Amino acid sequence: MGMSEQKSSAAERAGRLGAYVVPGRVTDPRPALTQAAEAERLGLGTVWLSERWGAKDFGVLFGAISQVTSDIDIAAGVTHLNSRHPALLASMAMTAQALSDGRLVLGVGRSVAAMWQSVGLPVPTNRSLTDSADIFRRLCRGEKVRYQGPAGNFPALRLTDVPDQPVPPLLLAAIGPRGLELAGRHFDGVILHPFLTPEAVARSAQLVRAAAAAAGRPADAVRICATVVTASGLAPAEEAAIVAGRAVSYYQIPGFGEQLARVNDWDPDQLAVLRAHPQLAGIRGSADSVRTAAQLVEAAAALPARWLNEASAVGTAAQCHAVFDRYLDAGADELILHGSTPDRLASVVG
């Protein structure tokens, strides 16, 4: 391969990559701006924001990032359809489209029932998700909405001043077969969870595309976004914090860890060993809200090594590229690089 072909291949791969800015817990969101600008400089296709209540409100961050970038898509990964009133969510989305010249991608999820119960909001169902998506799209088009059903009671909703911008694509975060089929039938894309193996991504992509076809949608109607935790060229302690610590924060959550293990065809009984670790024993919610990165890395010793090695990209740039290619060959349209912020990805992307 000649030098020009190598550059073309690298640019093509970069365009199919996105990356999270300010991942995890933060109290200062301002680094997101320089990280997003670096993502665009590297030629990435999308900058991703993980919303957390407190210092990572998606609407505020989107507005700021849209003004320090010019071409890169800006995506939520994820927010929720039921955490904002539908008119407020649609208003935020269309304002964002106008500010960015149509670069918003809205990723939404369902989270876990305990979280919604604790904040006094209804637990999403498949029907409420699809109805909420329909309400959102209609409002973004300037239509008047009258609705009473699983998504709520809305006698008369309408946005009076809608910008001349397209309705942003709605992507659904999904793991299990029902969620994947829902994405294939009703959404514009799917966001696959971190720590899925390439084989699990292939099975997930097949389910999504089969559901799309059964609904009479074209094969390319649904965008498959696979999330890959990535750490390259870092000191061992930093790599462990990004990969091992993050894996623990997902696998230790009761019910959620079992879902991930089953999707990967791994033995969920291993999770009992992880949860019995002294750093995790007795924790019922998310461990990363009460444990430091170093404590999570310590607990990761209880995980089988393959649960980390087979579902992340670590090592040299060439080793990471090989992993990326396996995920793309498995059917992913885009990879969301997680854990390492764009300012740490130059060697991998370039």
From TrEMBL:
<dbReference type="GO" id="GO:0016705">
    <property type="term" value="F:oxidoreductase activity, acting on paired donors, with incorporation or reduction of molecular oxygen"/>
</dbReference>
<feature type="domain" description="Luciferase-like">
    <location>
        <begin position="25"/>
        <end position="333"/>
    </location>
</feature>
<dbReference type="InterPro" id="IPR050564">
    <property type="entry name" value="F420-G6PD/mer"/>
</dbReference>
<protein>
    <submittedName>
        <fullName>F420-dependent hydroxymycolic acid dehydrogenase</fullName>
        <ecNumber>1.1.98.-</ecNumber>
    </submittedName>
</protein>
<dbReference type="InterPro" id="IPR011251">
    <property type="entry name" value="Luciferase-like_dom"/>
</dbReference>
<dbReference type="InterPro" id="IPR036661">
    <property type="entry name" value="Luciferase-like_sf"/>
</dbReference>
<keyword id="KW-0560">Oxidoreductase</keyword>
<dbReference type="InterPro" id="IPR022378">
    <property type="entry name" value="F420_OxRdatse_MSMEG2249_pred"/>
</dbReference>
<dbReference type="Pfam" id="PF00296">
    <property type="entry name" value="Bac_luciferase"/>
</dbReference>
